[in-house]
Amino acid sequence: MANVTLRNVRKTYPGGFEAIKGVNVDVGDGQFCVLVGPSGCGKSTLLRMVAGLETVTGGEIDIGGKVVNQVEPADRDIAMVFQNYALYPHMSVFNNMAYGLRNRGMKEAEIKARVEEAARVLELAPMLDRKPRQLSGGQRQRVAMGRAIVRQPKVFLFDEPLSNLDAKLRIAMRVEIRKLQRRLNTTSIYVTHDQLEAMTLADILVVMNGGQVEQIGNPLAIYEKPATTFVASFIGAPPMNLMSTRPDEIKSQLGGAGDAGILGIRPEDFVITDQTPAGGVALPLTVEAIERVGAETFVYGSRQQDDKRVAATPGELPPGEIIVRIPGSEAPPIGQKIRVAAVRQKLHLFSGDGRTRIEA
Q: Residue 307 — pLDDT band, cuts 50, 70, 90?
């Protein structure tokens, strides 16, 4: 096991495209770090740089106290699990898991012991003689994980390993990966574009956008206090409602400095009410759509530009689409006008460019 530290890591491709723009991350020994962000944000490139599959243009990658920028992938003592399993179709499960160990000249007795132990942990013992074509998608992914486990590396690297699985299996495998990592206590870095997967797996969450880090921290802390509007809208489902505010609204209603900014309110922090809470905000809405998802319902509402009540009541905000999350399956009918409100403690305020969180 080992710490993984990235110090001002950069990646620039020929032609001048800067894919990674100075990333600093410190993953402690035995921690589970998740890199999350939209497609093209640089998370997989960063993971491949840790693995040694991409060269580093600038900065340092430190694994276990050793800078590995010039170290070959095979010598970094890492194991990687890919999205596409990458199993040898003509080999049995046992031989797929044993292949890397044989290449390193390990004795057959030790190989057998490691493979059988990994198979026991992953519940693959009855399948060791099968070929990959005889396995389900989830079983193939477990074989790929087993191939990494038998290496007993310092660091596990996961590159979107669940994206090829169906939704139900993805949830089950997510739980299994977290349980397995805790049992092995191996430092892990995991890439995903799925914010729910990231929130449930991570000890350390790294939110990336445009080749740089938007925020690093505990997943719940990031959810409760997003540093930028990008983080606020990316982490959470449905996303946070974001609304432009005028200087007078910030100063009188939100306690800000008086500059124009952006107000954020999570869907679950709204309630349907005729009252405007002291220091909070209220919005009149027209119900446009209803989405029932079992134990809760999402209400999609809109403020029309010609709504005469805009700014007529203290705490009311400009027009736009609003999502309200309410418990249960009951919801107002489509077309009905309602009023929703949020208390001051549930409001998030950001600078006008969305790059800075303002603590009132």
A: very low
State pTM to two decimals: 0.87
C-alpha distances (whole Å) from 330 to each of 293, 315, 326, 333 are 11, 27, 8, 9
Report the Cα 115 to chain-centroid distance in Å. 31
Query: Does 157 lie in the same domain as 71?
Result: yes
Identify whether the C-beta of residue 177 lies closer than 8 Å to the C-beta of residue 143. Answer: no
Q: Which residue has the higher pLDDT, 305 or 339?
A: 339
Angle at 99 between CA 94 and CA 100, to 5 degrees: 130
Q: Is residue 245 located within the same domain as residue 210? A: no
* CB-CB contact of 205 with 219 (8 Å): yes
CA distances from 96 to 37, 66, 102, 292 (A): 32, 30, 10, 45
Token pair in block for residue 85 = 């399993």
Among 237, 240, 241, which Cα is nearest to 291's? Answer: 237
